[in-house]
Amino acid sequence: MADLMREIDLPLEAYMMAASSYDGYESTGIVEIIKPLDASITGRDVILVEDIVDTGKTLDCLLESMQSEEPASLEVCALLNKKSRRMVEVPIKYVGFEIPDEFVVGYGLDYNQRYRNLPYVASMNAAAVNGAG
Ligand SMILES: O=P(O)(O)OC[C@H]1O[C@H](OP(=O)(O)OP(=O)(O)O)[C@H](O)[C@@H]1O
Ligand code: HPA
Prior knowledge:
It is an enzyme of class 2 (transferase). 16% of the residues lie in helices and 32% in strands.
């Protein structure tokens, strides 16, 4: 997010939401908004920035919640798109990288809250998952 903002030469405001639905590397399918948006987006041009879109369930839930506030526009930017795993169709206007069906960690992405601090995105293999304790 910080890297992206540094590249945008326009006045902008940034707010964080938090949603969670993963237990390890499996989606529970139940998306919980842990921290809602603490600003009004009614009538505003909004870009929702996601680190990864996998099944699409999280994004679908967030979009529905945000659309209900009637922003002037609402687009999605995602660093990573795992399209082959999609269960819900979601509109993504800006995609950093299309990636294969592999569980990835690093650069903010976690496996049970670990590995977010890796300065790169890495594919996590089964042996690493089993040893991750
Ligand atoms: O397309 P989906 O299958 O819904 O997966 C994508 C979501 O999964 C991750 O969040 P997670 O639930 O792991 O919470 P986190 O951001 O705290 O890691 C990620 O940050 C996305 O929001
Ligand atoms: O591959 C992934 N890595 C980390 N978190 C995720 N949430 C959905 N897919 C992933």
